Amino acid sequence: MLQPKYGLDRRGFLRLGAAGVVGSSIPWQTGLGNARSEADQLGKGKAKSVLIVLLSGGPSQLDTLDPKPDSPAEIRGEFNTIGTTIPGVAVCEHLPKLAKQTDRWAIVRTLAHREHNHLLATHVALTGRPGPIPKGGNDLDRVESREDFPNFASALNYVRPSSNGIPSGVSLPNYLIEGPLTWPGQHSGFLGPKFDPWQIQADPNDKNFRMDALSLRDGITTDRLQSRRELLARFNHDRSNSSGLTHKESIAFRDQQQVAFNLLTSGKMVEAFDMGREADAVRDRYGRNKFGQSLLLSRRLIEAGVPIVQATMGIVQTWDTHTDNWGKLKNTLLPQLDQGLDALMEDLVASGLLEQTLVVVMGEFGRTPKISTLPGETLPGRDHWAHAYSGLFAGAGVMGGQVIGQTDARAAYPITRPWSPADICSTLFNALGIEHDVTIMDPLQRPHHLLNGTIINPLYTGRSS
To answer: 218-226, long-range: CB within 8 Å, 24+ apart, which pairs?
Structure first.
């Protein structure tokens, strides 16, 4: 049985690395084994929850957070810029609310990795690691599998399991699927279904939105439900040898039943999904659209105590603006993002939750510096680009009002230190108080450090390196 390992010290880890066990299975380690700095401690354990706002498809850094107004037209694009609360720093003109709130945000402009494919890049973004096995040349070879690494919520559930009926992770409002392709990085991978985050497949903006799975039938009390649970446990035990299920399948089924019972008896979760408890004025502030209401629901889940919440803006390739980049950004994507984040931050600040909630806004990559038009299309756009892209960080000790990292004149490559998804992974788990030497074991019994990169210390010190 796979178990969290806490006893592997630095010397033992280095011995394993020299033997080729760890080093070959954890790419992009930029700071493992280094002495823990004072800056690491500034962010350590500050967060009770993490909210990941995933802009699936990859937003353009040039048309959002890293504009280059002095570049040629074929680079800078169609938008103008506006000033922010940070002296000398500008963002896209279609993010006016964000521009007034940058004192609460740290803008990281030098996120970077190697994967320019949506599926592979999503796995990297949501696990901090590339796929564990070589992937073929076809997208069907890159889809989600139980060979994948666990995503952040699943890994947290594994090393710090929840026992209070509150799931370790909730992802909403949709699973990333397109035809035969299911995006990897969304579940627990090789850890098994027991550790999968809870997935919401519904639109919180729908007037009929409700979680029927959390509703007890009329006449069923929690005491009666517990009685049925005990009866079911005896029944499962009696039929375990004659059900036709394998031992592994029986365990997985019982685990799913356990999760269901915990959710049904958790009053906090039931209340969190009751969007009718929010005043109309509050819902209006977030925007009466799928994304805005998903951010509102995310805030409610954080209030309920969910450690990791992922809110995805759109389905799969919403920000994949190969065509009509500026029309899509101007008319829909940026206004909804701007409004939703503004309302979210106002509420987190007012409630005091921002002090204990790390908020991360990112795509799986950025867009090409040079504008292009696809064959047969008339409206130009930008293609995939993972060499440099931007993200937003706030809360749980993060110093707002700063820009971390600088790119070249085309926003194509970092000219200061790049930060990888492994670094985001380490920053996230450090914020949640996970020790730097915690590991999980894969099916081949190889140890993998959860903090597999370097903590982004400038988030907490304001001193870029």
So the answer is: 222/264, 222/265, 225/261, 225/264, 225/265, 226/265
Instruction: Give the number of C-alpha atoms closer than 13 A to the C-alpha of residue 254, restricted to the C-beta side.
Output: 17
pLDDT in tens, 177-217: 999 999 999 999 999 999 999 999 999 999 989 876 554 44
428 token code pair: 């996230």
Q: Which two tokens stand for residue 119?
A: 């599926």
Write the CA distances from 239 to 20, 229, 236, 257, 304, integer angstroms. Answer: 45, 15, 5, 15, 37
User: 357-384: per-residue pLDDT in tens?
Assistant: 999 999 999 999 999 999 999 999 999 9
DSSP, res 327: H
Degrees, nearest 5: CA angle 26-28-34:
90
Those residues with Cβ within 8 angstroms of residue 16's Cβ, 6 or more apart along the chain or in another chain = 8, 22, 23, 447
pTM over cut 0.90: no
End-to-end CA distance of the chain: 41
Identify whether the C-beta of residue 449 lies closer than 8 Å to the C-beta of residue 438.
yes
How far from 373 is each of 116, 119, 164, 319, 368, CA to CA, in Å? 18, 23, 52, 16, 12
Which amino acid appears at position 373 of this protein?
A: T
- φ, ψ of residue 266 to 5 degrees: the values are -95, 105
Residue 45, by phi and psi: left (phi above 0), alpha (psi -120 to 50) or beta? left
Strand partners, 392: 107, 361
3-state secondary structure of 263: helix
Cα separation, 271 vs 277, whole angstroms: 8
> Which amino acid makes up residue 87?
P
What Rg do the C-alpha atoms of the chain give, in angstroms?
22
DSSP secondary structure, 84-121, as one string = -SSTT-EEETT-HHHHTTGGG-EEEEEE--S--SHHHH
Q: 247 pLDDT exceeds 70? A: no
Q: Are 41 and 104 in contact (CB under 8 A)?
A: no
The answer to whether the CB of 166 falls within 8 A of the CB of 304 is yes
